[in-house]
Design goal:
Length: 196
């Protein structure tokens, strides 16, 4: 915990624990969150000490107005606010899921279960089907399969679709699908060997 005296430097606007104050009175929110419009700083420190908490200054006096202090647990307050800042600033790692043209239905279901879990957690998810060699001759079939896979993406909405060489790439973010997905048929498409 940091105790700041009258000339200690803090980040602009950052609350600090009052140990020695340059000001004599303050507006105060006590430990029961009751507002006091004008309290002597010595009395405010006594109230904080009796409550076993800290007297924290949130606004210094300016333009004739009193400072604003609160009686709180500064350590807990700072921990909570830093945790919230990290949560707000954290970026979710994008997830990428690969499919082959001859992937089995149960493997698709397994992959899409994870895709929906990632989307629900706030990750951006990219679904990629890559065609190799002679499989590229079956591109319309790959598009059909990817369209049916898209319907299984129930926790996200498509934001981008592109074809890059022999790959079909669909990108999703968390949200409602553009249309209500239909329940996929037991067999999305009969698996075949397209390698020959």
């Amino acid at each position: 915990m940091n105790d700041y005296g009258p000339n200690k430097v803090t980040k602009a606007g950052e609350p600090f624990v009052v140990k020695y104050a340059d000001f004599t009175s303050t507006k105060l929110i006590d430990a029961q969150e009751k507002f006091h419009p004008n309290v002597r700083i010595g009395e405010a420190k006594r109230m904080a000490q009796e409550a076993g908490l800290d007297l924290v200054c949130f606004n210094l006096p300016q333009n004739g107005s009193l400072a604003l202090c609160k009686i709180i647990d500064y350590g807990k307050w700072r921990y909570y606010n830093e945790k919230q800042k990290k949560k707000q600033n954290s970026t979710k790692e994008p997830k990428e899921i690969q499919f082959s043209l001859d992937i089995e239905d149960n493997d698709i279901a397994h992959k899409m279960k994870h895709a929906n879990e990632f989307l629900e957690a706030g990750h951006e998810v990219t679904l990629i089907m890559t065609l190799k060699g002679r499989q590229r001759a079956h591109f319309p079939l790959a598009e059909e399969k990817m369209n049916k896979i898209k319907l299984m993406c129930t926790k996200g909405r498509e934001i981008n679709r592109k074809v890059n060489g022999g790959s079909i790439i669909l990108k999703f973010i968390k949200g409602h699908p553009e249309t209500t997905p239909t329940t996929p048929t037991p067999s999305i498409i009969q698996p075949r060997n397209y390698s020959s």
